[in-house]
Amino acid sequence: MSALQIKKGSTKHSAYNLRSTFSDVEETHTIAVLVENEPGVLARVIGLFSGRGYNIDSLTVAEVDHQGRLSRITIVTTGTPQVIEQIKAQLGRIVPVHEVHDLTAEGGSVERELALLKVSGTNDKRVEALRLADIFRAQVVDSTLESFVFQITGTPEKVDAFADLMRPLGLSEIARTGVAALARGL
Q1: A single GO BP annotation from the record (predicted)?
Q2: pTM of the predicted protein model
Q3: What CATH code is carried by the domain that includes residue 39?
Q4: Largest CB tally within 10 Å, which of 3, 10, 82, 101?
Q5: CA-CA distance, 91 to 102, in Å (whole number)?
Q6: Residues 65 and 49 in one domain
Q7: 36 is in which domain, residue-wise?
């Protein structure tokens, strides 16, 4: 059957009606990329995203195998399923890339982020900030008469919730590491 013979609304899939196989809904995916630890690799990965107009929501990079000179790049990005598939395919074509894993698509993963939050305030606001920090299991890592610096680890949603509660109490600065993630199980 040629493309001209396919009836409107047909359930058959061909190169002419790929839109029916993908959703237009944007999804957030965590992608882990194992790369050679050499100059310019991170720039090439970032260039892939910026050159095509894709956004990076979170980016972490660290050497994970000193002897093998390998680094792991963890990227959180948002896009339609088509865009995510295109990103993974293009990442896999970059020469110093060894592995590309879509932790979101491959099943469960553990994601954590570390954040430092400076909260300035006095009297009741200080007491409330300490109370909330205790509930969220955030630790005080610095304290002055005018401010606290809290350290919190957890999911990005937990960090967001803590920051949202600290804003009216005097949140003046925040630094976040970005997401570190590993697949669950073996």
Answers
A1: L-valine biosynthetic process
A2: 0.79
A3: 3.30.70.260
A4: 101
A5: 11
A6: yes
A7: 23-102
